[in-house]
Amino acid sequence: MKLGVAENIEREVIVGKNSTVWRELARRSDIAAKFQVALGHTEIHNARLLPTDRLWVFAYSKKADENAALIEELARAGAAEYVYVSSATTNVVPYTRCYNYPTAKLLAQNLARARLNARVLTIGVVFDRISELPAGATIATSYDDLAGFMLAPRWPDTVEQEVCLFKPCERPFRSKAEAIAFRLYGYAMRALRKWPCVLRPVDFVLRGMGYRWYGYLYLSNKTWFTTTS
Known about the structure:
Elements: E1 2-3, E2 11-15, H1 20-25, H2 29-34, E3 37-39, E4 53-57, H3 64-77, E5 81-87, H4 100-116, E6 119-123, E7 125-127, E8 136-142, H5 143-151, E9 154-155, E10 163-165, E11 167-171, H6 176-192, H7 200-208, H8 215-228
Parallel strand pairs: 2-3, 2-4, 4-5, 5-6, 6-10, 7-8
Antiparallel strand pairs: 1-9, 8-11
Helix pairs in contact: 3-4
């Protein structure tokens, strides 16, 4: 991998200033100093973007057409480089498209590559302290690692290769009951295979109990650990 500071890039621009991840990153003095321009998706049309800008796209909509419209707007900006910040949970899409978030995120990622020749930075569940993560094993990215990469990005030799900026992090279950619920949920996931969204009513119950490892996050984590083991 090589240091990703192109000679013609003079300014770093955030697209998606209201995203939870960016709001947390912006609290850091080193990030705030380097990324002085942050735009909401509705501000792109009137923004004075330059051919020497690098745009980091954190913005996301649940609606595929809104993501596509944003990417088309960015294409007209003619920036030097685009970075699309994607999610590790997109790995569930080859198995099921019943979950809106990873499906829409993957569609937007692929469109950003096609229309913007964007580099893709894939992150997991973002955390400040590991205690913030769900119980069990989770594909995750620390804010420290994400900030460090953005300050000094290192890219593969070809734009087609994405950077996977995450690692497995494991936390104990809070109780035996949670561990049992996790195992039973796994049995149900395997039985349902391509129809895991049948478990959505169960997901609401698990959320009410304070558990956070259900749904596409569960499936994504299991898939990562299966394919990389």
